[in-house]
Specification:
- The chain contains twelve helices and twelve strands.
- With 289 residues, it is an alpha/beta fold.
- An eight-stranded parallel barrel has the order 1-4-5-6-7-10-11-12, surrounded by eight helices.
- Helix 9 links the parallel strand 11 and strand 12.
- The longest helix has 14 residues.
- The two termini are 23 Å apart.
Length: 289
């Protein structure tokens, strides 16, 4: 088994964005540019998340998915605003290989079963956005971390597997965007309780964090955003000095040259090399090297 590296692209409108704890979203660039770069440099999959889909009851990534799927040939998972089998079918027809559901899965758990029967369990990923409470347990949140549910994240993970989910992507809201490392305790608790693959997300600050969550957190794959995005911004801007001026939206944050303090910008290859040194199997060569 090879451990997968999955860049996460949070999207608002036409832009790639990033925040901390899912808040304070800042424009970083065009998602298509980042997706193509990650594909060409060894990503195993890509995860696109519509950050405002739940607010408007729809997923607005169809055009971005169409463009991206015509250029890349690795699995593409798309999440946000998917509320029915019909919604899922439309995103898959647009070019997605998998879908991720969170809000509607908790509100309507039978959707997991219906979707897994319609499209196969390998196509259905349940996304769990968890926050640790004072009682030491994790609560699953919905609406891109905006709404509480009272649902225990560990128990929900077990139920999602029984309903037919083929994978789980676990994002720690406490760690998300901080670069302070994954929530190893949360990841291990869930990974040791289910038999389906668990993707760890939220908090990656560099290659060492990736290795830790695979070894200590028992994750099957890793998802990360800021640590890859900030390095990619450097590369894209170096290739095209005019890149930042072609972006849509407010890019004032980009112009400052600042980034999240804890993040150690790195490439997918940097992560792969660190994994290799630690004896963790992964796809070592970029597709187009």
């Amino acid at each position: 088994m090879k451990f997968r590296i999955i860049p996460r692209l949070d999207i608002k409108g036409p832009n790639l964005v990033k925040g901390i704890h899912f808040e304070g979203l800042r424009v970083l660039g065009k998602p298509e540019d980042f997706a193509l770069y990650y594909y060409e440099n060894g990503a195993d999959e890509l995860f696109f998340q519509d950050t405002v889909a739940s607010l408007y009851d729809r997923n607005s990534l169809h055009e971005i998915v169409r463009k991206t799927s015509s250029q890349i040939f690795i699995p593409l998972c798309v999440g946000g605003g998917l509320r029915s089998v019909k919604d899922i079918r439309e995103v898959l027809r647009a070019g997605a290989d998998k879908i991720a559901i969170n809000t509607e899965a908790i509100k309507q758990p039978e959707l997991i079963r219906e979707a897994s029967i319609a499209f196969g369990s390998s196509t259905i990923v349940v996304s769990i956005e968890a926050i640790k409470r004072d009682n030491g347990k994790w609560e699953a949140l919905i609406e891109y971390g905006r709404e509480t549910t009272g649902v225990d994240a560990l128990e929900w993970a077990k139920k999602a597997e029984k309903l037919g989910a083929g994978e789980l992507i676990i994002t720690s809201i406490d760690q998300e965007g901080t670069g302070k490392g994954y929530d190893l305790e949360l990841t291990k608790a869930i990974a040791s309780s289910v038999s389906i693959p668990v993707i760890a997300g939220g908090g990656c600050g560099g290659p060492d964090d990736a290795v830790k969550v695979l070894k200590e957190g028992q994750a099957d794959a890793i998802s990360m955003a800021a640590t890859l995005h900030y390095k990619t911004i450097e590369i894209l801007m170096e290739k095209s000095k005019s890149y930042e001026y072609s972006l849509e939206g407010n890019i004032e944050f980009l112009k400052t040259g600042r980034q999240f303090a804890q993040v150690n910008p790195c490439t997918i290859q940097d992560i792969q090399k660190t994994m290799q040194k630690q004896g963790l199997p992964c796809r070592l060569k970029a597709i187009h090297e």
